[in-house]
Task: structure prediction
Amino acid sequence: MARKPKPGLTERESEIMEVLWESGPATSEDVRSRLSGNPHDSSVRTFLRILIDKGMVKADSKKRPAVYRAAVRKDKVQKKEVGHLLKRMFGGSAESLVLRLIEDEQLTLDQLEEIRSSIKKRKGS
Result:
């Protein structure tokens, strides 16, 4: 019996999705040529099948070679992945995530100020 795909994306799956979002429809060889670490072609095809099972990728197998495309928009996946991260690692607290980014120097005070300005503009203040 086949294993049920795990929710969320692995690092390699994320990398493949980035390729499809950036390049648009592509063959497995096109995808493989854009990935880091020179993965084997059968490994890339396996990852693409997993992404199809997860509903992230669609394949046009009428064409030879098959052409793959992203089935979901990047912003939708980002929203879902951030939600999983917040729930799993930060108890659902966005504030805790932002504090971690600041403490780890991944987010500067200047960047925070830019975010604050963007929020003000969105609210029309």
Notes: The radius of gyration is 18 Å. The chain has a mean pLDDT of 92. The longest helix spans residues 74-90.
